[in-house]
Specification:
Length: 285
């Protein structure tokens, strides 16, 4: 059986996620039901995307950790890192994969579908019919954050799909590694569900928060360093030197992502310590 094309995966996943969401709703859904259904679909997608990404990276392990010739003293020169020709020849960058392309198309389709779902939820939650059943709009969902997140990632992945369509994609394995960030989302959803619907279970919320922060630290902060380290191993330099030698577009994107994820983690850990372990920024007598 041949691998479906990225275009087929993109169109199918966009339609399938939207249809699954719509068919899972009762005739007159409350805003709470809308939020729960949307979050359940998110868990399904993130679990699927993470599993497929791990399988793809295992399939291309030789491109991630190739057997390299002994490094020469000149291989550590910064100019080597900045050379576009040498960068494009790295196994990590040059390797192409129909499996990886399909996974990026799946992620793109989900983001487009989820954007439509969120718009539908907001409009439905604002209607008098739903408002009469629930004063809450979409329980615990930060719509502004989701809007920025989906707009940015959708634009970037659609741009990638255009390159894939033309057969000019590069660095798709790097994208697949970044998709491992999906691994933290199910833990975040579990915490969201407990906080909003089982708020009396303080111990369970504390454990869920700790688990979420731990996975978040590994999958969204530590992963950035791991990618730079794998990249640097193929050029003979360290992670920081690799970052310094990236093209400005990649440096801007990577730096912004790492900074935002780190700031989010620091705030999350700070709030967790203050609420559960009694730490406070104010001095107590």
């Amino acid at each position: 059986m041949s691998m479906p094309t990225p275009s087929q995966v993109l169109l199918t996943s966009t339609a399938a996620y939207a249809a699954t969401f719509y068919l899972s709703l009762p005739a007159s859904p409350t805003s709470t039901r809308l939020a729960k259904t949307r979050e359940a679909l998110s868990v399904i997608h993130c679990t699927l995307a993470t599993t497929l990404s791990v399988a793809c990276l295992r399939q291309h392990r030789d491109a991630l950790f190739p057997t390299l010739p002994p490094a020469s003293p000149l291989s550590h020169a910064p100019s080597k890192i900045n050379s576009r020709a040498s960068e494009s020849a790295l196994p990590l960058i040059a390797t192409r994969s129909a499996f990886a392309n399909a996974i990026t198309a799946l992620e793109t389709g989900y983001l487009l579908s989820d954007s439509l779902i969120l718009l539908y939820c907001v409009q439905l939650a604002r209607s008098n019919h739903v408002a009469a059943k629930s004063k809450q709009r979409l329980v615990g969902l930060n719509m502004r954050h989701l809007a920025y997140h989906h707009a940015g990632l959708s634009a970037a992945l659609l741009y990638l799909q255009w390159y894939i369509y033309q057969g000019r994609e590069k660095g798709v394995l790097v994208i697949i590694m970044m998709m491992l960030m999906n691994a933290s989302s199910p833990f975040g959803t579990l915490r969201w569900w407990l906080v909003n619907f089982r708020s009396e279970k303080k111990t369970a919320i504390a454990f869920a928060t700790a688990a979420y922060l731990t996975v978040y630290a590994a999958a969204r902060v530590g992963l950035v360093y791991a990618i730079l380290r794998i990249w640097g191993r193929q050029t003979g330099v360290g992670a920081l030197q690799t970052f310094g030698g990236l093209r400005w577009q990649c440096k801007l994107g990577t730096g912004t992502m790492a900074t935002v994820n780190m700031a989010w983690l620091v705030m999350g850990v700070s709030n967790f310590l203050r609420r559960n372990l009694g730490f406070s920024s104010k001095r107590r007598d």
